[in-house]
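Hi W.,

Here's what went into the run:
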Amino acid sequence: MSKINVTLIDDRLNDYLKRAEELSAQGKFDHALAFLYRGLSLAEVLGDEKYLKKIKFKIVQAHHDQGQADQVIEWCDLSLEDSLEPLEAATLLEIAALNLMRKGLYRQAEALILPMESDPNPAIQLIAYQILGILNLHLWKYLQCLTLEKAEEYLKKAQKIADKEDKLIQSKLNFYMATYMIEDGLFFYAKEQLQAALQLIDDEITQIHIYNELGRACIKLMEYDEAANYLDIAHTLATKFSYQYRLNYNIFYRGMLYMEHSQVENACSHCLTALYEFLRRKQYPEVLQVYLLLSQLFQSQNPERAASYLEKYNSYRNMLDLRNTVDSDTVSRAKELYKWINS
Amino acid sequence: MDQFLTQIKTMAHQDLKDAVDHLAQNNWSMAIVSLEKAYGRMGLLDDEELKYQILYHLMSAYLHSNYPDRNGRIEECFQEINRLKVVNYSLQAEILRLRGVALIRQGKYDEGVQVFLQLAQVARGRMTLLVWAYLSEIYFLQHQHTARKTLNLAKHYGFKILNECVQKPFLRKEKSWVLDQLGKIFFSEKNYTEALPYFREKLEMTEQPIKRYWIYLNMAEIFLALEQTSRGFQYLKEAEGFFKRQNDNPGLAQAYYVKGKYLLHEGQSEQGIGLFQDAMELFHEAEEWTRFARTIREMEQIIAKKDGGKTALQADLVLLQQTYVLDDINF
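Here's what came out:
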């Protein structure tokens, strides 16, 4: 390949990546992905490993931001075939684990992360502690495992080693702590953590998630006006960026708010809308939550309907149980991966 | 597709081969990856004809995909096609059709109509009937979703197709489609006695049991509207029984939806809404998005009526793309 051609490819590649970055910042992830794929093909032509890794990572991130768990897992698999630095590999494994958790595959996520717990690199340890904290929280919440204390332990370990100066790390940790606190009934502290996270983040797209959770914390605190206010902000932002994935959580939480105001039908229509979007995205833990809420909603008014929702809840719960038996393949694959990262 | 295959002689060949495989298997998301990759490499070449074809296939793959912003991507591909100095008459009509469908799915009716009117100018033969069918369906949807009174236009294009079918008896598929469409249009303007003969004629020309029982469900809805509930219920019962025996989920969902309407009519609103929900679940499982969207919308209207106002959910449904659904029309 002549020198001119290489320069041409390089320029075009940079152009694609720049476009992808601009589009991601506007929340246009599908458009960004198109340019990333185009860039990927040019990086393949150049055979430039640095570019290839960078682009694949961005593709994973864009799918993750969209809440497309299946695609994230697929691309993580592809990216892990590249030669990665241990921290890069750990970050990819973190994203893969988060997306396995979105689908309710907790044991598979655990198998990926557990080996990282004893890594000498504190940055990798931090990732492991955070994910294991959230994972144990979910195991407690959705599968009734006795892992709440373990969740707290992991998150506290993460707090201890996290870089206090790094805003991104701190906001993420605040967010995870808040998630734990909401489940443990520490709603006031959860709200504080989320407000602290909000202070550290300028990016409006990330703020949507925090505003949504602030709304949820306020619902639990029975501060309904404030909850409505936070959910409205999240709604405005999610609509501004056409961010379906986060909008759906907003719809669900607004359903919860209607439930608190005893507006049964409105609560029901919001929950059902959210439910079908969760089902479409195969977010089974969220599906469980909605069914449970629906059965509570109709408990006194229409016990028959409440029972039918509870039945649905149980069938999805059983499905999650079944999906969470760890097969030996997953464990050995995770061990292999870890060995390879450290080699 | 053949033409597409013969041109796989460029540096983008492996991606294009992959794309062809994925397209053949309806694996839309992987087809998009391969096509975008191929297009990325094409950026280095001057082969505008091949770029044109890749963009066309990209539009098609996005249309079928579940990408959240697929309609936006279709529009961008269309704009890129317009920048190319290529005229491909065989693909031009199909490209316009894809763009038109994407516009309607975003609720942009006026722009969508313009595209199909433009298409009507260039369409020939059976394609003309297909364009008229789209126009009829779009005007019908516009009437349903907006304040515009466009049912007469929907009827106008429906009758144009019917007239052609009367003159050319071999157009059986087109006739079957338009009978259903006209029945649906008259039903929607509450002209039930006018709607009934279209469904009856469709029933007469339909032999396949599954299709016949779907028409039974249409008839059941009409008899309910005409307050002839016992007669309608008979049709409904037979159809429900058939779909249960066949384990046909889409059919059963539609039966539940119609049954829900009967219960609502009798004032049993709780049970009616419950059946609507059963219908939604089955439509969801069967990925029948148009019917799913309609059921969710009607349920919301019932709830809004009960609460004396419109709920705030409608705009969100549009964003979640559960409202404006225009299916592919296939004769």
